[in-house]
């Protein structure tokens, strides 16, 4: 029986992305958000535009 090695993915932080609609998203920094549509940003990132603390 072979032993499987576990190599956790390193997490390098978050970055804010502003979409063409003006909405802002918090995304993992390793995500290539420049090539994503707004629907894909909603899937992979957190929409923080409607957060009441941002007013």
Counted by DSSP, the helix tally is: 1
Helix content: 10-25%
Structural class: alpha+beta
What's the count of strands? 3
What is the CA–CA distance across the termini?
A: 57 Å
Q: Low-confidence stretches at least 5 residues in length (pLDDT < 50)?
A: none
Order of helices and strands: EEHE
Rg calculated over all Cα atoms? 16 Å
Q: Could you explain how this protein is built, in words?
A:
The protein is of the alpha+beta class and 55 residues long. The chain has a domain at 14-50. The protein has one helix and three strands, in the order E-E-H-E. The radius of gyration is 16 Å and the shape is elongated. 5% of the residues are buried. The model has no long low-confidence stretch (mean pLDDT 82).
Key terms for this structure?
55 residues; alpha+beta; three-stranded antiparallel beta sheet; 1 helix; 3 strands; 13% helix; elongated
Topology:
Blueprint: E1 14-18, E2 24-28, H1 38-44, E3 46-47
Antiparallel strand pairs: 1-2, 2-3
């Amino acid at each position: 029986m072979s032993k499987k090695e576990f190599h956790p993915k390193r997490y390098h932080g978050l970055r804010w992305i502003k979409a063409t609609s003006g909405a802002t998203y918090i995304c993992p920094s390793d995500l290539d958000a420049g090539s994503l549509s707004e629907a894909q940003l909603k899937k992979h990132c957190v929409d923080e535009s409607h957060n009441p603390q941002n007013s």
